[in-house]
Amino acid sequence: xxxxxxxxxxxELFGRMAGRSRSETRAxxxxxEHPAAVRAxxxxxxxxxxxxxxxxxxxxxxxxxFLPGYRRLGWCYLKxxxxxEARRVLEELLERQGDDAxxxxxxxxxxxMDGAADKAVxxxxxxxxxxxxxxxxxxxxxxxxxxxxxxxxxxxxxERVEKVIAEQNLMPGSQGAYF
Length: 179
What we know:
Mean pLDDT: 86
Strand content: under 5%
Order of helices and strands: HHHHHHHHHH
Structural class: mainly alpha
Helix content: 55-70%
Largest sheet: none
Low-confidence stretches: 21-28
Number of strands: 0
Radius of gyration: 20 Å
């Protein structure tokens, strides 16, 4: 006797008869269209970073080449004050895509959140993201001030960078660009 898990749903049965399987269709979906990614993105936008991080972590186990997932998971960890986890995830992204400006921005932010302003500035020297000019302008200004001998507290750097990320996300064409 077969149990219920061996049975196909009507939708799956008729889909197979028509030559398409729901599971095959889902397997061909781009990772960012996967229902788990869509749900995680919704949770991220609503500020539920804990649940979003869980979904992104599971999704990355299945889809390790889903690069935006690393950025989004890193942002969730930053918002949860889990800076070492954020750095770990973002450094994994940099191993896959070494010139990811967002990952570098977030790693610097994690250092600043930990009180290491000098480390943050050092990492931000590698950020070159001229498609998101609002953030890049602020990073360049921070670097100019550091090179001129001005020192800022790590808390001030966190506040400035988080503020400019929020501003950049409101710009036309870049909404949600940083997560």
